Structures are given as C-alpha cells and as structure tokens.
Request: fold
Amino acid sequence: MVELGVNIDHVATIRQARETFEPDPAWAATFAELGGADGITIHLREDRRHIQDRDVEVLKQTVTAKLNLEMACVDDIVDMAIRLRPDQITLVPEKREEVTTEGGLDMLTNPAHVRSTIQRLQDAGLPVSLFLDPNLEQIEAALALQVEAVELHTGTFANAAGEEQQAELQSLVQVGRTIRSAGVQLHAGHGLNYRNVHLVAAIEDMRELNIGHSIVSRAVFVGLEQAVREMKRLIVETARAANGNRTGR
Reply:
C-alpha cells in the first residue's frame, strides 16, 4: 500500500511570518495523523526559514507515525539527526535564494560529500532516502551508494500538462523500475496535489508519497484533518485500482 507522508513545513512558514508561537507544527502533526497520515515530513533547512530546531525536538517526542526529516548534507544538522534519531532521513539539495526545493540532489558533480553523509547516518542506524530527479544517470549513481530509498522529484511532472505531462510520467515510471529492481524503496514528492496524485500513486510498487503545500492549502478551507483524509482516500483508491488492474492481466 502507498503511504502518505504529510509535509508540515508550510505550517511553520505561517508561524515564522510573524515570528510567534502559532500555528504550532506539533498540532499540525497531530491533526495530520488523525486524518490518516502514515508519516510526518519536515525539512530543517540550514537557514531555519520555517522548521526550527525546537520543532524537531518536539515532533520526535510526539509523532506516533513515521517521522521523516529532510535535510541537506550539513554537519550540524547531521549531528542533530544522529542525536534525535528520526525514523527516516531524506537528503535534499538547498539553495539560499530558492522559495522551495527546486530539484534533486546532484549525484554526479560532488558525490563524495553526499557519500560521507550517508555513511555517517547509516553507521548510526538511520535509513536514508535521496531526493533525486528522474534522471537515469543520477539514479544509477545514487543506487551505487546502497541507500534504503529514493524519492523522485515530481515537480517537473506536476508543472507539465497534456503530452508533456505524460512524457514526464513515463520518465517516473521507467526510473522507478530501475530503483525497484535494485531492491530500493520507491518514494515520490513535490508538487503533487488532489488533481494529479492518482497518476503517481498508480506507479507500480510506489511505497511513499510526500505531500505538503496542496494539503495545507486545502486545510485552510476544510481543516487539516479533513484535508489529509481526502488525500489519503485518493491515494488508497488509486493504489487499489492499479493493483487490481495488474493482477487481472
């Protein structure tokens, strides 16, 4: 079954706009879990623009689902991850000027730093996922590092339409096969919403989808628990239908 990881960074973004105490990401995590979230995803950025160190501490103590910590290969955040031991680490790229993560890690230009970070985390017993573009060269370089999961960046797919979107979907499907054949878990995320999630959820052996902005946007109108419940239902129904189609061939 495809799991839903709810990214609550945007809740922290609202709080940091006033540098106050509300809304608290810990409350968001609680409502997300009540709505059926299988995991809570947070990104502790080097510039601390939304999620703060305290949030990670509190969420580690309160989240009962899987806690997925997104982070760059930054030593002090690696140290925190090893100390707090979230259930999963997802390594992502960061640029100071970006509004949100713009693409996957570059595994070809400077793989040594990523490799050393993975080694530190895995030596501490932490499973590692890499956030990557659906590019075969990037995927093969990552698989050589023996990570536990690869999360495909779906931003280009989400921003496309018509035949272009179908072409992007096929790229996700094709590299997904490569990932699964290596015995690595297949995850995906970025830009997924209530209108396009069914296409990615139907990819064979998709294990986890991480979705934030669309759910938090929907929550403004219906509440976070209901917004998560609606997204979870879409994913479950799609996965069941896709599995039924495959077994019925």
